[in-house]
């Protein structure tokens, strides 16, 4: 009888359920859709050979245009709102 080795099982990583609902849609429509739609219009005009790479680079470039906004959102406060001491 041949030597049998135990079968290894791999535990599946826990995955959060997909985000859904009105708050998520509102956030996506505000934060993502404008840049995504602009990039898709650019693709339709230029029809590049590698549209996903071009769109990805467009989105990266677009995200670099407003780093202050991204940092502000991640810090949880708005420096433009001044309080008097």
How are the secondary structure elements laid out?
Blueprint: H1 22-31, H2 33-46, H3 51-64, H4 67-75
Family: Belongs to the dpy-30 family.
Subcellular location: Nucleus
Pfam family, one: Dpy-30
Overview features:
single chain, 85 residues, mainly alpha, disordered C terminus
Amount of beta strand: under 5%
Largest sheet: none
Low-confidence stretches: 77-85
**Mean pLDDT metric:** 77
Helical content (DSSP H or I, runs of 4+)? 55-70%
Overall shape: elongated
Helix-strand makeup class: mainly alpha
Number of strands: 0
Task: Give a summary of the structure in a few sentences.
With 85 residues, this protein is an all-alpha fold. It contains four helices and no strands.
What does this structure look like?
It is a single chain. With 85 residues, the chain is an all-alpha fold. It has a domain at 28-73. Helix content is 55%, strand content 0%. The chain has 4 helices and no strands. The chain has helices at residues 22-31, 33-46, 51-64, 67-75. It is elongated and about 65 Å long. The relative contact order is 0.07. Mean pLDDT is 77; it is low at 77-85.
């Amino acid at each position: 009888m041949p030597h049998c080795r135990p079968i290894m099982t791999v535990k599946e990583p826990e995955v959060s359920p997909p985000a859904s609902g009105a708050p998520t849609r509102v956030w996506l429509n505000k934060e993502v859709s404008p840049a995504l739609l602009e990039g898709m219009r650019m693709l339709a005009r230029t029809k590049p050979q590698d549209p996903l790479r071009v769109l990805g680079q467009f989105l990266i470039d677009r995200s670099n245009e407003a780093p202050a906004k991204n940092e502000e959102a991640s810090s949880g406060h708005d420096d433009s709102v001044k309080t008097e001491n």
